[in-house]
């Protein structure tokens, strides 16, 4: 009884402290954080004559183009009505802008083209059940590109040449060898192909006249399969670049002489893998690389752009990146952001050393209470270093020592993948939750990418156990350091982060006050049995890092680590969000755990979006789910919430079960 009274007193103090810190701060409206940005994704055309970006047209993100000399004279050149355009690029001759889009989140991405002066958009890949891939763009061949199509066999992509003027598609290399990827040179000649191995590794084959050699010239096992890959040829074809972890822990940047096979290391870092690279748009020679341990940093290779990078570092606040470059390399589009400031985009004239601001992505956030992000190194119970990030509610840390004046409720926000990572920078979810009164913790648990192959391999066979322990260790750190108390922590995430949420609620049912699971696998056997066909190349790697469902031991492991079979252990409130068209984590993953809980009279709220896939791409749907989420968290953790209002009515949300368990949800659903 004494412990219960102490816990109740601590909870009351916690909520009171959060309320004091927050009362004078405005609630940042959800649509300001999660609605469409005003502008985003700027590019310069290869010839330097056009600027492009995405911006809303009737509430849907479309492509806009303006003369580079007059950005104010912009007009929309696409007219998507439902699905936002999230990925696009310029044709090498600057005569068209190309983009990919799917329908309802099904990930059958097709390729479209439109003129920078407007007019009718052309569908370049008029196929069904097809996911197009861009294989190569040449700096010298301007009228065509190489694309991969899986319309012949959904599991494997054949390479085709696409004539950008006529739209004619010509087969180049039929993928009968079941290759996962291809590397072409500046002449659009396929020079290399990679093939997955049964052990989860990769074999690399030289290709001549569109035929792969009989034997591989290089091979890596499972341990190097995600940290070693070719990074492209120079324009003269004499040098092949690699990101390469063979013989080392973290991946280095390596240059290989094609004629002799000799290699030399251009860059490496003991803390993290080499990440991105900047290659000269004409020669293909690498001029800079990035390392992202706790924060991303660009470093020059040689002197070609060293002075430019140094200039940009002095002129821009936060972390920056180069989004695109004109072929003559005179004009760059550069983006910069900080944790408490969303991205701004600039046009950089190298000759004039002039930086011109083009736009802020979310100007409505200016002057609103945004919080800085702390970088942390947290030790796991078995000695691993977990690079992590913490955002505190604005006004909660009057001493500026990185600790709140009083402990506050916390949301543990878990990244997806799991072979992905969290990073430093502006994060709308961190800002939203911090504004509502919560500390927000993001942890790079074992299996996260970018920190070397040993850290990655530490996650092999660790779903639901050691990977979960890393998250719990981060929570323990937060409690010991006065960030929060152990009875006021929620867990939330999407994809693998959703799995971690379900695992936390089912396997450690008293560790978290509540959970929010988005597109979350609940049964690992059914997850692996239903992966998309075009993921075939990664199947052996999934089995190697998880378990092989073709064996009795593998099936048993997958069942043991599946939250579905421990659903009866769940004690705390759970909110589940799902896209009906998700090809990766099928709707059945949500349906079956909701049914398992419903049949046992365990409260769960289930929100389903019939026009979404793996995540919620349409802002009206994302805002609706976040409206439910923040009111759910408010009841659970005691933070602030903007009322749900009419967000559900504007979305396609359905609530198959449990509306009564989420505050305000039944009323907001109305007649839906």
UniProtKB/TrEMBL annotation:
It is an enzyme of class 3 (hydrolase). Residues 1-21 form the signal peptide. Residues 427-639 form the Peptidase S9 prolyl oligopeptidase catalytic domain. It holds the Pfam family PD40. One of its GO terms (molecular function) is hydrolase activity. Keywords: Hydrolase, Protease, Serine protease, Signal. It comes from the Bacteria. This is S9 family peptidase.
